[in-house]
Design a protein that fits this description.
The structure is a homodimer of 343-residue chains. Chain A has 343 residues and is α+β, with helices and mostly antiparallel strands. Chain A is built from twelve helices and ten strands. Chain B binds a DNA duplex (30 and 30 nucleotides) through α3.
DNA sequence: GTTAGCACTCGAAGGTGACGAGTGCTAACA
DNA sequence: TGTTAGCACTCGTCACCTTCGAGTGCTAAC
């Protein structure tokens, strides 16, 4: 027995209905609501076949069928193949981002907010990340007589800063002079390389041991704890609206997963930079997410860095809508990060 | 009828038991578990009195009593008066903060994490905020040939930055020269004042209209959207562990409140900078929190700025433990923000 | 003032039966 | 040979009932 066109249409109807209602769907529903021109009995036979083929599950004998992960997979694949990702709410999105936002963090927070409110699922946005950034400029800014702010601008236009102590009094001009030397020495190096080169530099710019030591400390820390970048999560509470999570225990598990940021970032980033990824149920590789799906999309910032936006929802997710929204917002972010803030 | 010592002791026992179990407590429980040397019948009479006095509520006839908001208030007041805030986990906390952390955001995130994991409630940490900060230094750092990073260091050692476009090519030295002039002109002014003064400055440093305009834009934006500072929330999912939130609707309400960051910040900051505040149930002034309590503590950073740490939990919260933990962590934060990063 | 005793209340838990949605199978039909 | 009507069967849901027990208030005795 193989998949034929009619089976396909019936499966499609079952998936649509289940995504809509979240309730197991029976043969009568399909035969009535979606006019197939077939009686429920026929549908039943087909459904029985579909179950045998692994596309449908039956929670218990006297309930309808629900689509299996395999069914969603098929569904999503055809969705992605035909490429008809509708352009629903493009205008809303554009107008939201119209106001100029300076800080990357704000953009990311905004995006997460927006995705979750458009989809009604949980949204995650990760800031761009690529190979280790290279130092473009180092500048020391006086903070108090004993401390200075060290600002490192990377070639990708990202900024890292920290307050360090400088030994002894240093005025603005002295700090600037040191900044120039440091920039000259370190431009184009990665943080790791910069760390290695510090001893050499220490010889050249002597007499500031304290400061250089603190600087080294900062570089080293930053390099070793590879800044997972910024991450924004929006709409975690949305998930509780779905009957899948009316069980408090399940809900708590899900929420605490959302709270362990590092793990979450790994999961989302696990998609590996494909332009679109859909992981369904077990495919997520996370036991806690056995009945969730994760849809991610990539966006880029300058320097070819890849950021990720993602949506986490129940397996019966409105994939087509979600893909559409991620598509729009992904493009919007790419525009913002390559265009507006670029030279 | 008035409150006497015995009534007080019984009330105390009821509160203790209810905080522990979350189940209405009956007269027998008190008479047996807490050896009062009184029979359940006597306790019953006293409980009846306590109810009349407004310290106890009865969910329904055949259940035990639960403490009212008024009772918690009394309880907390005596707790605060006697000042015996135990110093439980001071060592754990100290060792956690031992590793040097550069970024304020990290410290705050950490603190929220720690408070929630120690208390098993939801924790909120707000970064220090005081009167409008004054500009200490402005520095422009080259990012690309067309853009620069403007870094503003305030007198409280906080840093704000944004990338702006500079018209035409500017090398590092030119930018430094401009930075010096700007710092000279604007040191000691608030952001608002700085905005007002920009036209005057524009005349002096002419020929850089584009840049000054962008700079103005940044100052203005920052001033108008008074940076609510950083806020970290930890352990929202902890709340779901309490039977009070086994109702999914309630849980969702609570969680979406936790997600509207601005509102949450207002609520937490509503305590008004007292060193300790406890708001019980209706006292929170937030309908959604009618059966929550909010405990906050203040910590300070240099310049007398006040930050807030807070715990949100069910009204039957382990107040004494929470107060103790907030006490410790508040001190720790104060030490960090006034000592270590100070001159 | 304290306590034992007792009738009473009421929620929680568990059991029962009607109901209905849905299935699989069979036999009839085109 | 595919489709459909019919029917017996399954099983979860819901409403209803009973039982159980925790807890109360009241009264009378100590």
């Amino acid at each position: 027995m193989a998949m034929d066109d009619r089976k396909m249409r019936i499966l499609q109807a079952i998936i649509d209905d289940y995504i809509l209602t979240g309730v197991p769907v029976g043969s009568r529903t399909i035969s009535k609501k979606y006019d197939m021109g077939l009686s429920s009995a026929t549908i039943r036979n087909e459904m029985s076949d579909l179950e045998e083929l692994g596309f449908l599950d039956q929670p218990h004998v006297s309930a309808g069928r629900i689509p299996s992960a395999k069914a969603y997979r098929l569904y999503v694949d055809t969705l992605l193949q035909t490429g008809r990702i509708p352009n629903d709410s493009a205008e809303t999105v554009r107008s939201h981002f119209a106001g100029r936002i300076h800080q990357m963090e704000d953009v990311i927070d905004h995006a997460a907010q927006m995705i979750s409110s458009l989809t009604h699922y949980t949204a995650v946005v990760l800031s761009p990340k690529g190979e280790q950034p290279r130092i473009h400029t180092i500048q020391l800014v006086p903070v108090s007589s004993e401390t200075a702010l060290v600002v490192i601008v990377t070639d990708q236009g990202m900024v890292r800063d920290s307050v360090i102590r400088v030994g002894g009094q240093m005025d603005s001009d002295t700090l600037y002079a040191i900044s120039r030397s440091l920039t000259e020495e370190l431009r184009g190096t990665t943080l790791t390389e910069a760390c290695e080169r510090m001893p050499v530099i220490a010889e050249r710019i002597s007499g500031n041991d304290r400061m250089l030591q603190e600087l080294y400390g900062f570089l080293n820390e930053d390099q070793n704890a590879p800044r997972r970048g910024h991450m924004a999560v929006g709409g975690t509470s949305n998930m509780l609206a779905y009957p899948e999570y009316s069980d408090v225990d399940k809900a708590r598990n899900f929420l605490s997963l959302m709270e362990t940021r590092d793990k979450l970032a790994d999961i989302i980033r696990g998609s590996g930079g494909m332009s679109f990824t859909v992981r369904i149920g077990p495919e997520t590789g996370v036991p806690e997410m056995a009945d969730c799906s994760i849809v991610t999309a990539a966006y880029s910032s300058r320097g070819g860095q890849q950021g990720t936006i993602g949506v986490i929802g129940p397996t019966r997710m409105q994939y087509s809508k979600v893909l559409s929204i991620l598509n729009i917002i992904g493009h919007q972010l790419t525009d913002m990060f390559t265009g507006e803030e670029n030279e």
